[in-house]
Amino acid sequence: MRKPCCEKKKTNKGAWSKPEDEKLTQYIQKHGEGSWRSIPQAAGLHRCGKSCRLRWVNYLRPDLKRGSFGEDEEDLIIKLHALLGNRWSLIAGRLPGRTDNEVKNYWNTHLKRKLIQMGVDPNNHRIGHNFGHTKSFGSRINTNDQPSENSHSDDPLLDSTSEPESNTSCSALPDLNLDLTIGLPISFGY
DNA sequence: AACCCTACCAACCGCAAATCT
DNA sequence: TAGATTTGCGGTTGGTAGGGT
Length: 190
What we know:
The protein is mainly alpha-helical. 40% of the residues lie in helices and 0% in strands. The chain starts with 17 loop residues before the first helix and ends in an 18-residue tail after the last helix.
Protein backbone atom coordinates (compact mmCIF):
# COMPACT_ATOMS: atom_id res chain seq x y z
CA MET A 1 0.00 0.00 0.00
CA ARG A 2 2.36 2.59 1.19
CA LYS A 3 4.74 3.74 -1.41
CA PRO A 4 8.36 3.69 -0.41
CA CYS A 5 9.57 7.09 0.56
CA CYS A 6 12.09 7.40 -2.25
CA GLU A 7 10.12 5.76 -4.98
CA LYS A 8 10.65 8.43 -7.59
CA LYS A 9 13.74 9.05 -9.58
CA LYS A 10 17.10 7.93 -8.46
CA THR A 11 18.08 9.37 -5.15
CA ASN A 12 21.54 9.49 -3.68
CA LYS A 13 22.32 7.29 -0.75
CA GLY A 14 25.14 7.04 1.68
CA ALA A 15 27.33 9.75 3.06
CA TRP A 16 26.46 13.35 2.36
CA SER A 17 28.86 15.50 0.41
CA LYS A 18 29.78 19.02 1.42
CA PRO A 19 27.84 20.64 -1.43
CA GLU A 20 24.77 18.67 -0.42
CA ASP A 21 25.14 19.82 3.15
CA GLU A 22 25.49 23.39 2.01
CA LYS A 23 22.45 23.22 -0.22
CA LEU A 24 20.32 21.79 2.52
CA THR A 25 21.57 24.21 5.14
CA GLN A 26 21.05 27.21 2.92
CA TYR A 27 17.58 26.11 1.98
CA ILE A 28 16.46 25.50 5.54
CA GLN A 29 18.00 28.72 6.80
CA LYS A 30 16.05 30.54 4.15
CA HIS A 31 12.75 28.67 4.27
CA GLY A 32 12.74 26.94 7.61
CA GLU A 33 12.14 23.32 8.49
CA GLY A 34 9.14 21.32 7.46
CA SER A 35 7.67 19.96 4.23
CA TRP A 36 10.46 17.46 4.12
CA ARG A 37 8.85 15.75 1.21
CA SER A 38 9.28 18.76 -1.01
CA ILE A 39 12.59 20.02 0.29
CA PRO A 40 14.85 17.83 -1.84
CA GLN A 41 13.40 19.09 -5.07
CA ALA A 42 13.15 22.65 -3.89
CA ALA A 43 16.73 22.61 -2.67
CA GLY A 44 18.03 20.81 -5.73
CA LEU A 45 19.05 17.69 -3.88
CA HIS A 46 18.83 14.14 -5.16
CA ARG A 47 17.83 12.80 -1.77
CA CYS A 48 14.59 11.70 -0.26
CA GLY A 49 12.92 13.95 2.27
CA LYS A 50 13.51 11.51 5.01
CA SER A 51 17.22 11.56 4.40
CA CYS A 52 17.23 15.36 4.37
CA ARG A 53 15.40 15.53 7.65
CA LEU A 54 17.79 13.09 9.27
CA ARG A 55 20.82 14.92 8.02
CA TRP A 56 19.52 18.23 9.28
CA VAL A 57 18.35 16.98 12.65
CA ASN A 58 21.38 14.87 13.43
CA TYR A 59 24.18 16.82 11.88
CA LEU A 60 23.52 20.21 10.37
CA ARG A 61 21.32 21.91 12.94
CA PRO A 62 23.24 24.87 14.32
CA ASP A 63 22.30 24.23 17.94
CA LEU A 64 23.97 20.85 18.11
CA LYS A 65 26.57 20.43 20.77
CA ARG A 66 28.63 17.58 19.36
CA GLY A 67 31.70 16.26 21.11
CA SER A 68 31.87 13.70 23.83
CA PHE A 69 29.31 13.35 26.56
CA GLY A 70 30.06 14.70 30.00
CA GLU A 71 29.64 12.71 33.17
CA ASP A 72 26.55 14.65 34.10
CA GLU A 73 25.06 13.87 30.71
CA GLU A 74 25.86 10.19 31.15
CA ASP A 75 24.15 10.15 34.52
CA LEU A 76 21.15 11.89 33.12
CA ILE A 77 20.86 9.48 30.20
CA ILE A 78 21.04 6.47 32.49
CA LYS A 79 18.48 7.98 34.76
CA LEU A 80 16.13 8.91 31.97
CA HIS A 81 16.53 5.52 30.37
CA ALA A 82 15.51 3.91 33.63
CA LEU A 83 12.41 6.06 33.53
CA LEU A 84 11.55 6.11 29.86
CA GLY A 85 13.17 3.08 28.29
CA ASN A 86 14.29 3.35 24.70
CA ARG A 87 12.42 6.54 23.97
CA TRP A 88 15.48 8.21 22.63
CA SER A 89 13.79 11.30 21.33
CA LEU A 90 12.34 12.03 24.75
CA ILE A 91 15.66 11.43 26.40
CA ALA A 92 17.44 13.61 23.86
CA GLY A 93 14.86 16.29 24.46
CA ARG A 94 16.20 16.64 27.97
CA LEU A 95 19.76 16.99 26.78
CA PRO A 96 20.22 20.31 25.04
CA GLY A 97 22.21 20.05 21.85
CA ARG A 98 22.00 16.27 21.67
CA THR A 99 20.06 14.23 19.14
CA ASP A 100 18.17 11.03 19.62
CA ASN A 101 20.55 9.27 17.26
CA GLU A 102 23.53 10.50 19.21
CA VAL A 103 22.06 9.44 22.53
CA LYS A 104 21.06 6.08 21.13
CA ASN A 105 24.53 5.47 19.71
CA TYR A 106 26.16 6.54 22.94
CA TRP A 107 23.92 4.28 24.92
CA ASN A 108 24.59 1.28 22.72
CA THR A 109 28.32 1.77 22.53
CA HIS A 110 29.23 3.10 25.96
CA LEU A 111 26.57 3.13 28.60
CA LYS A 112 25.12 -0.30 27.99
CA ARG A 113 28.51 -1.86 28.47
CA LYS A 114 29.23 0.31 31.44
CA LEU A 115 26.08 -0.83 33.20
CA ILE A 116 26.79 -4.46 32.42
CA GLN A 117 30.24 -4.10 33.89
CA MET A 118 28.64 -2.66 36.99
CA GLY A 119 26.36 -5.66 37.19
CA VAL A 120 23.28 -3.76 36.17
CA ASP A 121 20.95 -5.05 33.49
CA PRO A 122 20.76 -2.23 30.92
CA ASN A 123 17.34 -3.39 29.80
CA ASN A 124 15.55 -2.91 33.07
CA HIS A 125 18.19 -1.33 35.28
CA ARG A 126 17.97 -4.13 37.76
CA ILE A 127 20.98 -5.39 39.55
CA GLY A 128 21.23 -8.98 38.48
CA HIS A 129 22.66 -11.49 36.12
CA ASN A 130 20.05 -12.46 33.58
CA PHE A 131 20.82 -9.81 31.01
CA GLY A 132 19.24 -9.95 27.66
CA HIS A 133 16.07 -11.77 28.57
CA THR A 134 13.82 -8.96 29.48
CA LYS A 135 12.55 -6.92 26.63
CA SER A 136 13.19 -3.25 26.81
CA PHE A 137 10.11 -1.76 28.34
CA GLY A 138 9.86 1.40 26.44
CA SER A 139 9.90 0.72 22.78
CA ARG A 140 6.69 2.58 22.05
CA ILE A 141 4.32 4.50 24.21
CA ASN A 142 1.39 2.55 22.97
CA THR A 143 1.89 -1.09 22.30
CA ASN A 144 -0.69 -3.17 20.50
CA ASP A 145 -2.27 -4.60 23.59
CA GLN A 146 -2.57 -1.21 25.20
CA PRO A 147 -5.10 0.98 23.47
CA SER A 148 -4.35 4.37 24.80
CA GLU A 149 -7.61 5.13 26.43
CA ASN A 150 -6.18 7.17 29.21
CA SER A 151 -4.70 10.08 27.40
CA HIS A 152 -1.11 10.74 28.23
CA SER A 153 0.25 14.09 28.90
CA ASP A 154 2.80 15.29 26.44
CA ASP A 155 5.52 14.72 28.91
CA PRO A 156 5.73 11.18 30.15
CA LEU A 157 7.92 12.33 32.96
CA LEU A 158 4.92 14.06 34.33
CA ASP A 159 2.63 11.21 33.53
CA SER A 160 3.23 8.34 35.85
CA THR A 161 0.57 6.20 34.15
CA SER A 162 2.59 6.02 30.98
CA GLU A 163 5.40 4.07 32.49
CA PRO A 164 4.43 0.46 32.80
CA GLU A 165 7.35 -0.57 34.91
CA SER A 166 8.20 2.56 36.70
CA ASN A 167 7.38 0.99 40.01
CA THR A 168 9.63 -1.93 39.48
CA SER A 169 12.29 0.37 38.22
CA CYS A 170 12.10 2.25 41.44
CA SER A 171 12.39 -0.83 43.49
CA ALA A 172 15.21 -2.07 41.36
CA LEU A 173 17.11 1.12 41.77
CA PRO A 174 16.65 2.22 45.31
CA ASP A 175 19.30 4.89 45.06
CA LEU A 176 17.87 6.50 41.99
CA ASN A 177 16.02 9.66 42.52
CA LEU A 178 13.01 8.90 40.42
CA ASP A 179 11.13 12.00 41.27
CA LEU A 180 9.12 12.87 38.27
CA THR A 181 10.98 16.07 37.93
CA ILE A 182 14.43 16.06 36.53
CA GLY A 183 16.47 18.66 38.20
CA LEU A 184 20.15 19.16 38.13
CA PRO A 185 21.93 16.03 37.15
CA ILE A 186 23.26 14.36 40.21
CA SER A 187 25.70 11.59 40.19
CA PHE A 188 24.12 8.52 41.62
CA GLY A 189 26.09 5.55 42.57
CA TYR A 190 25.43 2.23 41.01
C1' DA B 1 53.66 -3.44 5.96
C1' DA B 2 49.68 -6.17 5.95
C1' DC B 3 46.01 -8.15 8.07
C1' DC B 4 42.43 -8.68 11.52
C1' DC B 5 39.40 -7.10 15.11
C1' DT B 6 36.78 -3.80 17.56
C1' DA B 7 34.46 0.45 18.41
C1' DC B 8 32.21 4.27 16.73
C1' DC B 9 28.97 6.87 14.17
C1' DA B 10 26.29 8.31 10.09
C1' DA B 11 22.68 6.81 7.55
C1' DC B 12 19.06 3.61 6.05
C1' DC B 13 14.80 0.88 6.76
C1' DG B 14 10.36 -0.28 8.39
C1' DC B 15 6.71 0.86 11.17
C1' DA B 16 3.33 3.68 13.63
C1' DA B 17 1.45 8.12 14.69
C1' DA B 18 -0.14 12.35 13.02
C1' DT B 19 -2.07 15.02 9.56
C1' DC B 20 -4.45 15.89 5.38
C1' DT B 21 -8.10 15.29 1.85
C1' DT C 1 -15.09 8.80 8.68
C1' DA C 2 -11.92 6.42 5.85
C1' DG C 3 -8.14 6.26 3.13
C1' DA C 4 -3.89 8.46 1.60
C1' DT C 5 0.15 10.87 2.65
C1' DT C 6 3.73 12.80 5.51
C1' DT C 7 6.45 12.91 9.53
C1' DG C 8 8.93 11.04 13.37
C1' DC C 9 10.90 7.30 15.92
C1' DG C 10 13.64 3.27 17.09
C1' DG C 11 16.25 -0.66 15.38
C1' DT C 12 19.78 -1.98 12.51
C1' DT C 13 23.48 -1.86 9.19
C1' DG C 14 27.66 -0.48 6.73
C1' DG C 15 31.81 2.16 6.34
C1' DT C 16 35.91 3.37 8.45
C1' DA C 17 39.37 4.77 11.84
C1' DG C 18 42.37 3.05 15.20
C1' DG C 19 44.73 -0.41 17.80
C1' DG C 20 46.84 -4.93 18.19
C1' DT C 21 49.38 -8.81 16.26
